[in-house]
Structure formats: structure tokens, C-alpha cells
Amino acid sequence: MTFPRLITGACSSVYSHTSRISRRIIPTVVIYWKHKYSTSSSPTADVKSPVNLENIFSDENKERVKKSLLTIQPVRTIEHIVKPKHKPLKISHDAAVIIPLCVVNDEPSVLFTLRSSSLRKHRGEVSFPGGRKDDSDPDLIYTAVRETWEELGIPKEKIDVWGALSPAPNKYGTSFTTPVLAYCGHIDISKLVPNEDEVEVVFTRTIESIIKKENIASTQWRYGRGYTMPVFIGGQHRIWGLTAIFLHQALIVLAPGLYKNKVRHNP
């Protein structure tokens, strides 16, 4: 695999602390796999939308995204996990991840990691950098930025946080993970310093390839009340589970007119 370039952004968070295992929470049994989306495969935006691949990371789109983040709805909620008449579940911990927007070879892209095969849980799965909130972390944005530094060596001053999306529960409803949308500038993967105990591979996908109709599918689960989740294919690694949910949420606010997919549940 050839790895593409690093720079820029700004963030108000500060962090240190020792490295922790990134807690990615992904369901375990695929029930349904079929394309159930309406999508635009064109790299040009809808006529009603000012967003295109040339200005997707612009200051204007950043401000629009920050406003949109205040209204975005979660793809999956605790109601999808807990069946009627079940007792409320005890939340054991909170976690956060960064969705790293970046430019690779002059193309707007998203960065992902493949979890180390030596980890006890979720080994070899595609994820975003992140992990559990430490007691000393002031908030979950701090957690996400700190974990990104610990996993990939991207310093806080190069992480321009745009805001947080809706948190999503794991399949048992016992923990929530908050995705944080952030721009990390031009990335050269060969210059990153991944933590080998946690990260096996770092890779990127261009936004243009992610939003293509033929690269989008869905998975339906019958756990709890049942729910449907997006799946992104077409690259070397399939993007699914919570990572796909967070990517879907991010694209809805980041690229209206370019990304038109709607998750349709079929019980």
C-alpha cells in the first residue's frame, strides 16, 4: 500500500496522559446486506447546495457545518437497543473519536485506522482515532483530541475542531461514543507516528470515492428493536459499524447535495 501529506488547523484543547486502547464498539452479526440508498455519485454539488469538492473544507462551509451540527439527529439511539419493558441500562463509560477530515494529494479525504490485530477487542477493525474518557479529561472533545495524538502523533494545534455529532450507543446500550468532526489539513501518512500497540494501518479515502452510489450499502440488525446502518465499500477496507454511522452523520452535514443517502429501516 502506498501512503500519501500533514499540516494545519487549530484547536483549543490541550492534553497529555498515557496511551489507552481505543474503544471502538461495533455489532457482531450481519443479518442483511443490500443497497438501500438514494445517492448522488457526481462530484459536483446539487444546484441548491453551494458545497462542492473544491470548497468542502472552506471557512464558509465550516461555519455552515457548525450550525448544522446543532440540529443533526442520531442514526441510532438507545431506543433501538432496549426492547420495550426492559429496565434502563447502566452506562459504564463514555468515549469519543475524531473524524479526521484532511487533504491527501490535493483531494478532500477522510482518515481511518485499522485496529491492531493484537488487541483483545475489535482487533483488525476499521475505526476513527479515539478512546475512553479519562477522569482528568475536561470534556469529550479533549478526549478525542488527546487520543488522536496518542494513536497517530497528530498534535493538537493541527486539529481544527468543527464540533461534535450525536453520540451513539454500543449494541448493548452500556456506553456511548461521541464523534468529533475536525479538519487536520494536508496529511502525509508516511510522516504520522502511529502507536503500534493500537494501530495496525492508517489509510485514507477520498470523499469523492466514499459518496459514489456503487460504494454504499447497508446492514440491518435484529438486536433489540432492530436498526439499519450504512456500510461503505469500494476501498481496500470495508467501513461499517459505528465508524460507518459516524461517517454517514458527518457527510450529511459536510456535503449536502453531494451526499444524499438516507438510511431506510426494514424490520
Task: Describe the model.
The structure is a single chain. By secondary structure, this protein is α+β, with helices and mostly antiparallel strands. The chain has a domain at 60-207 and 242-254: Nucleoside Triphosphate Pyrophosphohydrolase, CATH 3.90.79.10. The chain is 17% helix and 25% strand. The protein is built from five helices and eleven strands, in the order βααββββαββββαββα. The protein is globular and about 45 Å long.
CATH class of the domain at 60-207 and 242-254: Alpha Beta
Examine the secondary-structure arrangement and name the CATH architecture of the domain at 60-207 and 242-254: Alpha-Beta Complex
Number of separate helices: 5
Strand count, sense and closure of the main sheet?
A: 8 strands, mixed
List keywords for this structure.
single chain; 267 residues; alpha+beta; disordered N terminus
Topology:
Layout: E1 32-33, H1 59-68, H2 78-81, E2 93-104, E3 107-115, E4 126-127, E5 130-132, H3 140-152, E6 160-164, E7 168-169, E8 175-186, E9 199-206, H4 207-210, E10 216-221, E11 227-232, H5 241-254
